[in-house]
Amino acid sequence: MAIQIFLKQKQARGNFNYGEILENKPIGFPQDGGQLRPYSNLFYWAHAWTKDKDSTIGLHPHRGFEICSFVLKGEIDHYDTLLDKWITLSEGDVQVIKAGKGISHSEKLKSGSEIFQIWFDPNIQESLYIDPSYNDFRSKEFSTVYNNGIEKKTISDEKNQIGLDSNGIQIFEYNFKDGIYDHSIKNLCFHSIFILSGNLTIKDQVLNKGDFVLIDSEKKIQLSVMNNCKIFEIISPLKPVYKTYAEVHNVN
After folding, report:
1. Half-sphere exposure at residue 119, Cβ-oriented, CA atoms within 13 angstroms
2. Are 153 and 143 a contacting pair, CB within 8 Å?
3. How far apart are CA 106 and CA 147, in angstroms?
4. Based on C-alpha coordinates, what's the Rg of the chain?
5. Is the separation of the CB atoms in 67 and 99 below 8 Å?
6. Around Cβ 64, how many Cβ atoms within 10 Å?
7. Contact 184/191 with Cβ under 8 angstroms?
8. 117, 109 Cβ separation under 8 angstroms
9. How far apart are CA 59 and CA 3, in angstroms?
10. CB atoms within 10 A of CB 250
């Protein structure tokens, strides 16, 4: 497999409230029609944004999965039936909902906001029988280091700072100054990379905001960066230690 590239225009799309909220989905539901299906213990990945007005996604249920929201820009308000109150999350904040036996929630994206919503599979055959839980992590809680033109923000590494039950997940955000960089690839892992801004060239392919790259079976890749590229990266196991929902239910 090595390196697969999924350009923004080839990804699944969606919207809410007659287009007030728009979505591109690197990993969509089967009915969404995108190229990429669930892999590892990543089941779903949506990039959602609003333009010039606030818009609310009404109350809706989840079960089993770990539903994580990453605020990329602006603010969102969030309500769920566990806490029974609205909470504001700002740029850089992360929300983790362990849906367990079941929870319902609603989100309001403020004007000009962007988020990721990503569903991880924590062994859903077990998580369906546990009580739901909810945690917010503020941007200031995440460490950032600067080294040789790279700003690296650690959201979760081997220490599992956000407490996911999903096996082997690590999450990072990088800001690269213009230049050429070697980027290490972990053995027996997928590296899932979303271009947040700027431009990035991998293997002579120029990537822009919204493009998505899936990498495995490499020791390292070379990144040629233009326009101070910013990326979001998730590292996940090639083979989780349990059968995923997608495997059990043949989601392809």
Report:
1. 23
2. yes
3. 39
4. 17
5. yes
6. 24
7. no
8. no
9. 38
10. 6
Tell me phi and psi for residue 241, to 5 degrees. Answer: -80, 5
- What type of residue sits at position 70? F
One DSSP character per residue, the chain reads --EEEE-GGGSEEEEETTTTEEEEEEE--GGG--S---BTTEEEEEEEEESSS-EEEEEEEE-SSEEEEEEEESEEEEEETTT-SEEEEETT-EEEEE-TT-EEEEEEEPTT-EEEEEEE-S-HHHHTTS--EEEEE-GGGSEEEEETTEEEEEEE-TT-TT---STT-EEEEEEE-SEEEEEE--TTEEEEEEEEEEEEEETTEEE-TT-EEEE-S-SEEEEEEEEEEEEEEEEEESS-SS--HHHHTT--
- pLDDT per 10-residue tile (average), the chain, 252 residues: 90 95 95 91 98 94 97 96 94 97 96 98 96 96 96 98 97 97 95 97 95 94 96 97 94 80
Measured CA to CA, the distance from residue 206 to residue 32 in angstroms comes to 26
Residue 218's pLDDT is 87
The Cα–Cα gap between 120 and 58 comes to: 22
Global pTM reads: 0.97
Q: Alpha-carbon distance 231 to 87, whole Å?
A: 27
- Strand pairing class (143-147; 150-156): antiparallel
